[in-house]
Amino acid sequence: MENKFIRADDVAKELNISTAHAYKIIRMLNEELKSKGYITIAGRVNKHYFNERLYSGDKEES
Q1: 16-34 in b/e burial notation, b at 16+ Cβ within 10 A?
Q2: What's the domain count of the chain?
């Protein structure tokens, strides 16, 4: 089964940023999802939502 979440270390690699900054981005995205009524997991963010917010949904999921 494919993992539907991306972790901070993967976000950091994808964006070429520090892990600390990746956690800040994940917190921001998770707050957006919480405000829409979704359940979130600390330190992880939904891959589809990550790609949608950062790449307008154009980036292929691997």
Answers
A1: eeeeeebbebbeebbeebe
A2: 1
> Pick from 35, 37, 34, 29: which is nearest to 53 by CA?
29
Residues 6+ apart with CB under 8 A from 41: 5, 30
Q: Name the DSSP letter for residue 36.
A: T
**Tens of pLDDT along 27-43?**
999 999 999 999 999 99
* Structural domain contains residue 22: yes
pLDDT reported for residue 61: 54
- One-letter amino acid for residue 27 of the chain: R
Q: Residue 10: which domain range? A: 5-55
Rounded distance between C-alpha atoms, residue 55 and residue 57, angstroms:
5
